[in-house]
Amino acid sequence: MRRARRVAMAAAALLLGAFAVTAWAGSPSGSTSAATEFGATVSAPTRKVVEGRELFETSCSSCHGFDGKGLKGQAPSLVGAGEAAADFYLRTGRMPLDQVGEEPLRGEPSFGNAEIEALDAYVGSLGEGPAIPKVEPEKGSVSEGMEMFTESCAGCHGIGGKGGVAIGGYAPPLGEATPTEVGEAIRVGPYIMPRFSEAQITPADVNSIARYVQLTQEPEDAGGFGIGHIGPVPEGLVAWLAALAALLLVARLIGEGLGGSGADDAGEEPR
Question: CB–CB of 144/100 below 8 Å?
């Protein structure tokens, strides 16, 4: 009886082992899923996420914490920030900060492309957040982009995308912004910039805004001088100053001409 029971138990163990091997081999990646105590499956960390976590622990955890939940008085939580936020701040060199509390400004990236991709993957794994958008400016409309940029962006960045002072911070110039970075900023709302959902600004709208930003980076100067593309208000001031200088010059020339003619008339002897 005992021998028969042992044989039955061994057979059941073999069947369970064969089922486990079959399930493992049939998974999408062959080794990226594991059973939980409730019978569900969860994805195992990918190579990029693992590499990103290692980079995060050595380069970011002093401010954001080892779990990415932030440290009071140092840096905010990255749970739910999404890959778009990590990608924007890292590729524009805004992170890591030199001094906590400073406004993050554009600079040279501190990481290479592969490292940024790994950090993006790790931050994205911390919680659902905005993904890196696929921006295609060639599919957008310059006129529609200018209209939306005027309504939502020009108040801080200036109609020419040259940047300006905003309440609580500085709106940077967009001369170096790539289409992807434009899309990321719209979805993430870096620093004091508000974030916009797809219901507010659709992906098609993002394409148009990115196309207009490209135009501001290389504007056409047909029929005039660019004078550095410093914006419509300062350009208008320069035009007024140039016109005033021209008027003063003309007035002086006319005055000198009349003065010379009067002297000649006064010195002429009557006949």
Answer: no
| Dist CA 89 CA 15 (whole Å) | 52
> Which parts of the chain fold into alpha helices (H)?
2-26, 47-59, 61-64, 82-91, 113-125, 142-152, 154-157, 179-188, 203-217, 232-267
Q: For residues 122, 125, 127 and 130, what is the CA-based torsion angle, rounded to 10 degrees?
A: 80
d(CA 164, CA 154): 9
- Output the pTM of the full model: 0.69
Of the options 3.40.50.2300, 1.10.760.10, 1.20.120.790, 2.60.120.580, the CATH number for the domain spanning 47-125: 1.10.760.10
Amino acid at 41: T
Instruction: Judge whether residue 100 has pLDDT over 70.
Output: yes
Q: Is the pLDDT of residue 142 over 70?
A: yes
- Taking the C-alpha atoms of residue 52 and residue 208, their distance in angstroms, rounded to an integer, is 33
In the chain, ranges of CATH 1.10.760.10 domains: 47-125, 137-217
Other C-beta atoms closer than 10 Å to the C-beta of 57 total 13
Mean pLDDT computed over every residue of the chain: 82
Predicted local distance difference test score (pLDDT) of residue 24: 42
Query: What CATH code is assigned to 137-217?
Result: 1.10.760.10
| pLDDT tens per residue across span 44-58 | 579 999 999 999 999
Higher pLDDT, 258 or 183: 183
- Quick one: pLDDT at residue 259? 67
Q: How far apart are CA 156 and CA 170, in angstroms?
A: 8
